[in-house]
Design a protein that fits this description.
By secondary structure, the chain is α+β, with helices and mostly antiparallel strands. Helix content is 49%, strand content 15%. Helix 3 packs antiparallel against helix 6.
Length: 351
Amino acid sequence: MKQKLRLVFLPFLLTLSGLILVYTLLHWLILIRFELFSIKEITSNLVVPMIVSGLVVLLMVRPRLRFLKLKKSKTRNWKDFYLIIAWIVLTTPLVIAQEYLVTATGKLTVLRKASEIDHTPLTKYYRFKSFYASKRIIGIHPNFEVSGKSNQSFDMYIYVALPIFDGPADTAGTTPPAWLGFSYRKTISNRLEPAQKEESYKQFARESELDFASKNVNRFIYFDRPGSSDDREGFLEAIKSNPVYQPSKTVLVGVNEPFEARNGHKLLWFLSSTFIGCLVWLVMVLIPKLAAHEIVKIQNGQQVSTIKSELKPFWEMMRPKVGFLVTPVLIYINTAIYALMAIIGLGFIFF
């Protein structure tokens, strides 16, 4: 048991801790603190952590599984099962940590009036002692997407943007310093006929209009400035559609909850997912027997499998060579395109 803990479980704990600390620190430094470039939050908070965790499992966890006697049959490969569980255990707390990072490190700026936002550094959260959001001239942007397995869902969005001023007297001929965004969403079956979809959208639009008409748009505890996301892009398109005011990229979403509650239960989810994941991995490590031949190698001072030896078949497969040139080149080109998409903010899920 001690050998299992020393050779498999403890290295996994160190890998998990290092992954969370290093990735979260880089996320904060590159995207939040210095804003070196901008990518969509779904990319930085979900897609990249999933990919990085997969690489860590391949490079750090997989070699350690050789110390466990995991049987392989024609119908079942326990090693692959362990790798999938390890990927889930690493990915879940890493993703939650990024969501917590965004809200927990966000700074609240308190301003006397809305127009002061143009003269202060941008922050995540704002509170205005005086502001006026006008419903008289608004921008609206509808958007439609297909999602789900086999494109079974038809998602309908309506984005509404209202200009924010210091007071009612500023609405005439003044460029709004910021915009207040509202969003509505409804999902229906993508298998409906076009006429049925159109009728569903009209009903959705009427319901959204009634809800918007009943809202008090001048009473919020604080405002959240959304990061790079599909919602933010929807709000910006809504701003462009307004017939009077010049477009602005400062979009805010009103929040009527205490500022102290902005993190929700993310910290609890992070701790719980980390504890449960490590507990599951511990049980999985303790179940199989040790691979005696690998232990003998250690005792005899022989070299056990390294990352290089583990990945040698993969590198050989990916290396362009005579008779096998087109496939690896296409893979490299696609990887470069996806990386470029992430950097410019489209994200890996865009296509």
